[in-house]
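Anyone able to model this chain together with pyridoxal-5'-phosphate?
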Amino acid sequence: MTHKMAALSVDPDVDVSEMDRTDPLRHLRASFDLPADTIYLCGNSLGPLPGNVGARLADVVQRQWGESLIRSWNAHSWFAMPERLGARLATLIGAQAHEVTVADSTSVNLFKAACCARGLRPQRRRIVTETGNFPTDAYVLQGLAQLLGPGTEYLAVERDRILDAVDADTAVLVLTHVHYKDCAMFDMAEVTRRAQARGALVVWDLSHSVGAVCVDLNACNADFAVGCTYKYLNGGPGAPAFIFAAERHHAAMNPGLVGWWGHEQPFDFAEGYSPAAGMRRTLSGTGPILGFATLDAALDIFDGVDMAAVRAKSLRLSSLFLDLVAEKCAGFGLRAITARDNPQRGSHVALAHADGFAIMQALIRRNVIGDFRAPDVMRFGLTPLYLRYRDVWDAVEALSQVLRHGEWKSAELGRRARVT
Ligand SMILES: Cc1ncc(COP(=O)(O)O)c(C=O)c1O
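re: yes, here you go
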């Protein structure tokens, strides 16, 4: 198959082989163990296996755990991993090294961040978020509001009315920076500025941003942020998440879910809780050392990588994808819900189709792996570290064939497993 796009009206001069040859990030693909003959468009959900993880895990398991045993907490600095990994991650999100820790899941960290923010605005009742935010965000905030009782109220508002809803009674606005379905991206600086002007604090969920788009939390004067590391950071299934708090909030913040790892002197085994200074107080219990080690190895890939180049390639990949879909897949009932002309988008593309689930299954059968989000959204993650422009070409070619030949119409492909 040729990848020359001479037949296309979108841009007859574009040659994907040439785009790959001149891609400044092309060397990074070799950092991953990608299965042959597979086009992996699901890095926005679970990043692929970095090539260095196996050896790193073997070392931590056999040499550190196996030989050093419990001495590893000191000898291999296991106890400091939440802060050490936080410092590494800080460089990717515009934070200071001491403003980020890595621990727990995104859901748990969101609870802690929202609790910190709510506690810093005791006179205000409301926690505001976007209708259609990722469900865990909504559930965690509903749970927190319930726990805090009648003095706290949860309110979900449509995207275009969000800022109108932030009023004198709003304690905290919780938003996902890049939407998990349509991939639309908030203007973090502007939203933060306007919410803070009304006296509210803002918590950003960066799950679909970190490692994919440029994030500068301190330049945006962000208050709190959380995010997961198993998507664009390739930290592995169930990888520990991160939490950011601006330094100005450290002394007064209370994450609510506290535990001995966040105590100022955990090995005093004191009866009463006394929080550690700074971000250490966001920790609760023993961290997943094997998960930390996997993430540590995965972050090596980002060393020296220019996020502006990642961002530029991401937009180029998604523009190419959308142009090719418009060209090759017209007339089959697909609807692009990620806006081609809006650069305020993250790093995946969402297409809607009434039979989206079965179409995605047919694509996966062809080793083009994306995912599906109910009720009708197919998502294609376009991850600049390991995808080539010709992968985009081949993926859309496969999609057009699935549609043209009605490959998705078998009953078997419509059956849903527990995870879609
Ligand atoms: C915006 C957002 N927040 C949170 C999560 C997941 O949270 P957790 O890792 O706690 O399951 C996801 C997962 O896709 C997500 O898209």
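The pocket of pyridoxal-5'-phosphate is lined by residues 105-107, 134, 136-137, 176, 180, 205, 207-208, 228, 241 (CB under 6 Å).
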